[in-house]
Structure formats: C-alpha cells, structure tokens
Amino acid sequence: MTTVARSPNLTAPEARRRLAHERNSRLTQLSAIEAGAALADKELSSAQAAAIRRVLTEIDAAEGRVADGTYGACQSCGTGIPVERLEILPYTRYCVGCQQKS
C-alpha cells in the first residue's frame, strides 16, 4: 500500500463543509434545470443534468476520501493537492499536473 500525502491546512470538517456546499449548489441547479426542462431545449437540459449528476458522483467519492483519510492527495501521483485547488474544486481527484496529463 502506498502512502498518500494529505493536503495541509484543510481539515476534514472544512472539507466536508465545502463538499456539502458544492452538493447543495448542484442539487439546486439540477432542480432548476428539471423544473424548466419543459420550456427549454430538452437535449441541452438533459446534457446539463447529466453533467451535474457526474459532479454529484465526484462529491460522493470525495466524501469517501475524507472518511478514509486520502482526501487531498492526488490519486495519480500521490502528492498533496494544494489547498487553493481544493477550495475551488473540493471534489477534485488530481493535482493540476496530473489533471493536465489526462
């Protein structure tokens, strides 16, 4: 088993708070899309809803990483993900370098 680096200065409660905020924002967006789907372009609404559901899946996965102690570590190279990146994308799996490679 490899050791993963934890991100400094971002506690598990803070990570959970940020993830909960992201989830609530996405659920609000999803509700708005679904409510307006009858009036809007169905294909566009469907694509937007699918994208939001993917982010919700990523948020769930990030909460699992908080629980198992691997949150804040890049899932590709194992280095710590900068706190600034986690503040912007609290559900991210990768550091910027690894994200750009994929």
What structural class is derived from the secondary structure elements?
mainly alpha
The portion of residues assigned to helices is 55-70%
The sequence of SSEs as H and E is HHHH
Distance between the termini: 23 Å
- The number of distinct helices, counting runs of at least 4 residues, comes to 4
| Low-confidence residue ranges | 1-7
Total number of β-strand segments?
A: 0
Average pLDDT figure? 87
What is the gyration radius calculated from CA atoms?
16 Å
Instruction: Give the amount of beta strand, in percent.
Output: under 5%
- Main beta sheet, described? none
Per the principal axes of the C-alpha atoms, what is the gross shape?
A: elongated
Architecture blueprint of SSEs:
Elements (H helix, E strand, L loop, with lengths): L11 H25 L5 H27 L14 H6 L7 H6 L1
Helix pairs in contact: 1-2
